[in-house]
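Task: sequence design from structure.
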């Protein structure tokens, strides 16, 4: 007998207390006692988040009578056996201003399903109805989501309205985040597919038209990359539109991909206004938009086998994040160039910054990006003051590996093939029919074979050296083959203390002491607060730079620091400024 859909009803009922009220109706619960779980993590963010800690006052009833419940694990509950419909009610605290969880106040409500919707064990493949209710005493709010309305339901939501929405299963339910409120909205079509851009926050004079125009070009270019003939957008298998949901704050930055939408955080100053030309921050925002949109193909549909399907109760390890995040990080800025929203010189500047970032990390000599991918849960997402000395980013070095592979493929095939052909093969074999054809993922050790199949070029040695090994990608040799000259210059002429600092309440704190550098040799440590150099007070990091600029490499300086609440003094021999800034230009 076909089971009736699960019914979730969500009400943002307490804006001052930041609480959602959720009711889950299960028509045919497990007669032995229904188990309920909440995801321990959210796909795309590889860290155990423990969303269950925000669940409050969980209770259950059957035919009006209370049903006993007990906690059985960090993320699981067990209901006592009952006959007939089981109704579970609970409150969720929603005050996480991020792209991962839930946030609710008098200005808006936003949530990812992974943080609010309980999973019904044994029924995760069943359809899910979601009734979204407006907050009390609030008028004018609308709903923005890629989750389709339940068109055959008598209470079906209508055009951004409150009402009933439909997900084909639990995996889809938690893969369509929802924004409620009165945001600024722009719309456009890319190859006929509807897109919405939703901006929440205080945004005077926001140039929505410009953002929509530039984003449309990026989306169209990416669709054409993967589907050069049909130009069919990938999300049309599960949604009527793609939605960019952006929460704008003073200094926010980040994104999280979903199958037909993305949640973004952006700094207000990075967005263009009607009365000023945008700066480099706007290019950073467009790069974020491009990155998350590219994930619509690469990781939301083209997946590693380890994510097919996800196990949301524990870590899902894969050594392939260098493909899914690294390749995406390569294409995000490249698609800005290809779509024409940035100029070639802008692209080289942005690429030079990535090369410089990777070059400054001593951890690249100690950890491969394959190991970095596997260790994402315990190292990349749990960074500390020593992380730059110990780990490498599968995002940034992964993007340089993608660049290197692209050039090697172009050279090895005499220009007949490129990394684009690899992405199209992955899309055709693993991604295009992922949600309709059974969903298989890429095996852990198969990228060398797949690249050769797509291009005819053997990259086994390249991957052994630069993916499984810790060798730098030989860009000084490869880039000139594409007509790009590469040079290194000191970031400044100031003698180096070889630390990374941050300003905290007008003080200069050492965030990282670079291994083998001047500060390391002199005895300074991360978390030290620099208070004086040669008896002169240090306040903000800029004042430290001014004091160091009075010296030359090889000079000894007396550095006073507070370590915890103890005043310490160290003699440090300043180093020559490192050649840490990569400059790229077109040869000739």
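Answer:
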């Amino acid at each position: 007998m076909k089971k009736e859909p699960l019914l979730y009803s969500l009400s943002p009922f307490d804006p001052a207390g930041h609480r959602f009220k959720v009711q889950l109706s299960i028509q045919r619960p497990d007669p032995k006692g229904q188990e309920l779980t909440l995801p321990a993590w959210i796909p795309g963010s590889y860290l155990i988040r423990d969303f269950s800690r925000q669940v409050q006052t969980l209770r259950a009833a059957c035919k009006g009578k209370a049903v006993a419940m007990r906690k059985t694990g960090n993320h699981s509950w067990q209901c006592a056996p009952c006959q007939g419909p089981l109704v579970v009610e609970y409150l969720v605290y929603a005050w996480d201003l991020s792209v991962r969880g839930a946030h609710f106040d008098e200005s808006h409500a936003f949530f990812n399903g992974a943080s609010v919707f309980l999973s019904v064990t044994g029924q995760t493949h069943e359809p899910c109805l979601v009734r979204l209710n407006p907050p009390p005493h609030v008028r004018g709010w609308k709903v923005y989501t890629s989750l389709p309305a339940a068109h055959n339901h008598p209470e079906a939501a209508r055009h951004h309205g409150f009402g009933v929405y439909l997900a084909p299963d639990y995996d889809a339910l938690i893969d369509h985040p929802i924004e409620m409120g009165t945001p600024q909205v722009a719309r456009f079509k890319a190859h006929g597919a509807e897109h919405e851009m939703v901006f929440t926050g205080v945004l005077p004079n926001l140039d929505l038209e410009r953002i929509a125009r530039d984003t449309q070009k990026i989306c169209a270019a990416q669709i054409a990359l993967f589907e050069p003939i049909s130009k069919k957008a990938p999300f049309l298998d599960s949604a009527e539109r793609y939605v960019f949901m952006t929460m704008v704050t003073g200094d926010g930055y980040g994104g999280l991909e979903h199958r037909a939408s993305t949640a973004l955080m952006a700094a207000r100053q990075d967005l263009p206004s009607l009365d000023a030309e945008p700066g480099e921050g706007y290019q950073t925002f467009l790069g974020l938009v491009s990155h998350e949109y590219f994930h619509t193909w690469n990781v939301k549909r083209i997946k590693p086998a380890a994510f097919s399907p996800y196990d949301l109760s524990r870590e899902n390890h894969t050594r392939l994040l260098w493909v899914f995040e690294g390749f995406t990080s390569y294409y995000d800025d490249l698609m800005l160039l290809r779509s024409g929203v940035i100029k070639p010189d802008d692209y080289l500047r942005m690429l030079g910054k990535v090369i410089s970032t990777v070059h400054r990390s001593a951890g690249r000599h100690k950890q491969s990006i394959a190991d970095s991918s596997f260790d994402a849960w315990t190292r990349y997402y749990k960074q500390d003051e020593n992380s730059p000395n110990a780990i490498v980013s599968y995002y940034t070095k992964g993007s340089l590996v993608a660049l290197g592979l692209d050039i090697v493929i172009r050279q090895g095939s005499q220009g007949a093939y490129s990394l684009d052909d690899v992405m199209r093969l992955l899309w055709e074999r693993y991604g295009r029919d992922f949600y309709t054809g059974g969903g298989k993922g890429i095996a852990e050790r198969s990228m060398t074979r797949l690249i050769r199949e797509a291009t005819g070029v053997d990259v086994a040695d390249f991957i052994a050296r630069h993916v499984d090994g810790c060798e730098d990608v030989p860009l000084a040799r490869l880039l000139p083959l594409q007509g790009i000259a590469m040079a290194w210059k000191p970031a400044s002429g100031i003698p180096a203390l070889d630390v990374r600092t941050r300003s905290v309440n007008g003080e200069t704190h050492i965030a990282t002491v670079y291994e083998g550098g001047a500060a390391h040799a002199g005895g300074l440590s991360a978390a030290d607060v620099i208070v004086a150099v040669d008896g002169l007070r240090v306040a903000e990091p800029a004042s430290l730079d001014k004091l160091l600029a009075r010296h030359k490499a090889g000079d000894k300086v007396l550095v006073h620091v507070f370590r915890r609440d103890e005043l310490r003094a160290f003699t440090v021999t300043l180093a020559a400024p490192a050649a840490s800034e990569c400059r790229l230009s077109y040869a000739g």
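The chain has four domains: 6-181, 184-294, 305-482, 499-573.
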